[in-house]
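Justification of resources, computational component.

The compute hours requested in this renewal are based largely on the per-chain cost of generating structure records like the one below. Each record pairs the submitted sequence with a full structure-token output. That output is archived, and it is also reused by downstream analysis tasks.
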Amino acid sequence: MDMKEFDRKTYIADSAQAFADRRITKRQFLRRLAIAGVGLSSFAATMLGKTRPFPGLTPPAARADTGASPEMTKWLQDVGSKYKGTKIRYTSEATPPTIVANQLAKDEFTANTGIEVEIEIVPLEQVLQKATVDVQGQLGSYDLYYLDQSWTALFINDTIDPKQYYADKKDIALPDFDWDDFSKPLVQGISTYKDKLIGVPFDIPIFILMYRKDLFDKHGLKVPTTMDEYMATVKALDEAERGNGIYGTTGHHPSCFANLASALAPFGIAPDTIPTTLNVFMNVEVQPNGELRILPPRSRAGDHIVLRAEMDMIVGVTACSAELSNNGSFKPIDVELLSPEARLPAQREPHGAGEAPASV
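The structure output for this chain reads:
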């Protein structure tokens, strides 16, 4: 590993650790990864900083059919006995395949081979940090790496071609294992980089289109099969049903921060310099684990707040893009600029005892 690649991996590992320690934000972490030329699959990016939501994952009976076949059991015992007492270590995030693999390792693999399997389950950013540190320092802490599909280029020089490996070591190759059982586009897109196979497809995201059949029938729409058809369909639904409170995904849905960044850009204010916002009339709960929940507001129609500027200011105002923050109505919030001589709005009677305050 040359010094340039060593420094790159140091930067990636340090950034992942900083995010895991909450010393930088998710946005800063993603920006640092982009600088280092590392990406994340879209689903993985949404799960950064948290454990994937798969509690009560799978009923035991569904995990491994009826167990290993007699032939498989005998093969594991014959081949694995030579490595009894050794340990295989790897780290992964909490995905369904990982949970099932962890159970199978205990019930079938270790029981028949005597080889221990130690799976360290951590959030995805820590998987990246641990794998990067391991290959950078040539530590050998892990025998297997769980890699997001967008990391193949980063670890291309730190992995082996499993197909070639087992072709060379037929004594430990699983009998009748057919690599062609994997979908070729899947292998090409998930575990191949520049025609080199770097691993085995393991945790495969499946995207499903769900739709309202009643609305499709009502408007004579067909189920889309391409992205162009999808965009045309949701646009038609949006135009036809918006008055009924049903909205189509007609394109990019900017976040609150994106709205602020766009509005302040003409004033030379860069996104990184936008401070933490003051949330007015929002109902945001902080959970014990630090997660923020945006709930319907507890303010009432006509509630207002008056802020006085005591110096020249550039103020950005945005309505939250989260549907629950405004009860799904998507109605604009009135903002009025008053001169110092202007009369302030009349104060409404305060909420009764036990009622929520006007702003949260």
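DSSP finds eleven helices and seven strands in the chain. The radius of gyration is 27 Å.
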